[in-house]
Amino acid sequence: MRTLKISIAAPRKPGEDFPVTLWSCDDDPPEVFVQVRGATSSIPAGLAPDEPVDDPGQPGTALTAARVIELHAAAAKGAGVQKEVGIYLRALLARGKLRTVWDDLREQGACRTLIDIAPDKPVEKASDRVMHALQLLPWERLRTRDQAFMFLEAGSPISRGIGVASLAPPTDWPLRVLVVNCAEPDKKGAAGGGIGADEEVSALERLFGCREFRYNVEFDVLENPGPAEIVAAWKSIQPHILHFIGHGVGGADPDQHALLLYQPGPGAGEYKFVPWRLNDIRAQFKSRDDLVAPRLAFLNACRTSGRDPGAEPAPMSSISDAFLRAGSLATIGMQGDVAGDLAAVFAREFYMGLMGPGDHPIDSAAQAARLAMSGHRPTADVLIDPDWSYPVLSLRALPHQVLPKSPDVLGELLAERFVARVAQRRRVHEAIRCSKAFTAAKPGAAPHMVVIVGDVRSGKSHLSSWSAQACQRAGFTVARVGFGEDEPVDWLDAMRWIRDGKRRTPSELPKRADSGRLPASAFRDFNWGLNHRQRGLTHFEPYTGKDDVQDLGVGLAEQSDIPETFFEDTAAQFRDALVKCATPNGLVLVLDQLEGLEPNTLSKWLPNGLLRPIAMGSVKGVRLILVLSGEQYEACRSELERLTRVPEVVRLEYFARADVHRIARHLCRQWAKQICDEVWYPPMLQTLLDQHRRNDTWNAELLKSVDNLCKQFNP
Fold first, then answer.
1. In the predicted model, is pLDDT for residue 668 greater than 70?
2. What is the pTM for the complete model shown?
């Protein structure tokens, strides 16, 4: 899809025209198609299109920018928006030759357009006030040559820009979303009933739990947090998207702009709204190196992008601007007061537009969401009802560069994703992918090994399983081995297990598991050398054939003449085979249940033959996820910490009771609304919670029972 940009720059002097330029953003550097001069004067009221448009409320009078802003403010307070506003905006923006070229390009095929108004800045001179007036205009009501609304055309998305630049898109999939519900409680005491926020949270939980989203979106929900809780979750999760639900307030003074956080009051059962002010939000990111502004701030709250055009004087800043200035690449805010049901529809359709393989630009998702929003109510009239035009998407980067691209390698991932493990999954996944956003123990050197540490039944294997499947979906070759608790295996059979995907059966030739993911061809030299060394040979001709070589399956205990360099040579050839497996996209080894290894293997072979070389980066393209109990980790901790590249250690604690409650709710809601209604709200789930209570901590049996209960309603 072709990307066009219409940029509006400030006039150099009061009274001069402001230049309007149509660019092609597909060229490097961008190509100028056409530039025209926009008529202006020293005051915003003088902005006028090249063709007059009648004022619908004042017959015989031409519309001006000031009058359009006035009409828009009236619409935000409930009055109808006349169609002439959209016609005026088109005549103001698409002038002369630019109009003809733009229309021709749009008719040639699908294309997106960015309306890029010069970056906002304090009002110091008349030309700045002109740009300020341009920013206040309701561009979402813009009309086409055929009088259709441009912001409702699904095939040709259009959005606002503020100093749009071309950037490298992130690669740290899956998408991470932090949902912050700060609405007031309803009459029943559940958060958010007053504005439909609880319904929106439930809809997002169900949406993110369905199959298409389940392993493409990492999300967590905070209910009525304070600023400190938001910052703590922010630091831990590092979300791509902050999704705020609640209220926003504005005013003429930028210090009056705030998100309202519903917080406990001084007395028992008392609550109050605490403002999280624009300047405080901006300062949180500017003053801390460990906080990164979300790439997209989704502010599903009234007046977060509106600048309250009815205020005198109209303010230059909005809450959305605070996030853009703090480093966000995009914001979605609201120009007016949006009903809860429409806000929920917009949010749901927007996220649905981000899913699937390939690029999913956020402008296309927002355009589709507006279209769904405009038709949600059967009696809605897009010519009169302004609600659909209130969501404002503002960009500082090209639309496809804001959020990470979905991986091309798809497929079902089977491991459950518990909502309370978002931060741990992020750390494992980013360390393995060597994301630039990840801060390693030694700056500039991301680790090649991740160690997952936790006590019995703390969810270690579950996390490693999810991580393995997520890495596979990201394009890595993955080999996961759980050595189990049966008869311990020695180091040689452990290597065979990794190679074949299953344990060797004594007295039988080793065979690959049907699910084995490592290519047999990569182990030809390893098998050839192993067979010779097990016969006592240290010097032999290299293998030159093209067929796979069968490992003769001789166990260590069956060997009578072991060469002195048997371990070193065998381990070296095994590492060489892993390097071949890592071509072209990298290999991730996941080793779990190490209690199934012989003590000597765990203390000597594993560190010397595999752990240290991988951690040092000498096994090219290979990453390792090692799962250890607390006791196992303490036994090898000093050895790991002496490595030049210290492994990333991810510790798992037992879930607190509040976390179990959230997980159980998520397991219910991920199926369908009717199942959630059947399972979650009656005492059925509470009965399960009481039956499985164990010191108010994590309990795997509880979660299995909840999942089984859900399946009874969805066989």
1. no
2. 0.78
